[in-house]
Amino acid sequence: MSTPLPLLVLNGPNLNLLGLREPEVYGTQTLDDVRALAEERAAQHGLTVDVRQSNHEGQLIDWIHEARTGHCGVLINPGAYSHTSVAIRDALAAVEVPIVEVHISNVHRREAFRHHSYVSAVADAVIVGAGVDGYALAVEWLARRVRA
Ligand code: CA2
Q1: Sequence-distant (≥ 6) Cβ neighbours of residue 80 within 8 angstroms
Q2: What is the predicted pLDDT for the residue at 2?
Q3: pLDDT tens, 32-51?
Q4: Is residue 79 part of a domain?
Q5: Does residue 30 lie in a domain region?
Q6: What is the mean pLDDT of each run of 10 residues along the chain (148 residues)?
């Protein structure tokens, strides 16, 4: 059997600060910890992950376009772009592989401007408020979908 394409794990603006500030909202685990847990969960299913983070909307869109041919699924935490970016929504709508949107915090318990996400309508599944465990849950779900 041929080697499966990796899962793309995309992180939007400010998520490079994970574990370094606001632990009461986002916990104490860093983006490197997230990478390790995503890698570990994917490996349990014979998959690999390609974990990336950018503070730039256009860069995230270019990476989403790569997933059209280079990845078997997309996990995205678009950060604050969830609440503002029609462009990221449109890029994801052009991707045919399964997509999971993840938010570390429960955005519905927070400010009203975080309650709407442009991404949710084009995601196949959405996980909010499970902390960084949400990444492991999303990888698990994507792996089952891809392996099915
Ligand atoms: O809960 C999430 O995962 C969010 O996507 C995080 C975004 C926020 O704008 C969304 O509404 C919900 C913010 C990411 C900022 O991450 C930081 C992490 C540590 C310290 C400061 C910011």
Answers
A1: 12, 13, 14
A2: 75
A3: 999 999 999 999 999 999 99
A4: yes
A5: yes
A6: 90 96 91 98 97 98 98 98 98 98 98 98 98 98 94
The rounded Å distance from CA 104 to ligand 1 centre is 7
Specify if 58 maps to a domain.
yes
Number of domains the chain is built from: 1
Residue 128 CA: nearest ligand 1 atom is 1
Q: Are 54 and 88 in contact (CB under 8 A)?
A: no
CATH of residue 109: 3.40.50.9100
Write out the residue range of the structural domain in which residue 96 sits: 7-147
Residue 53 falls inside a structural domain: yes
Q: Are 71 and 10 in contact (CB under 8 A)?
A: no
Per this entry, what is the length of the chain? Answer: 148
Pocket test for ligand 1, best of 85, 107, 118, 135 (most atoms within 8 A of CB): 107
DSSP 118: S
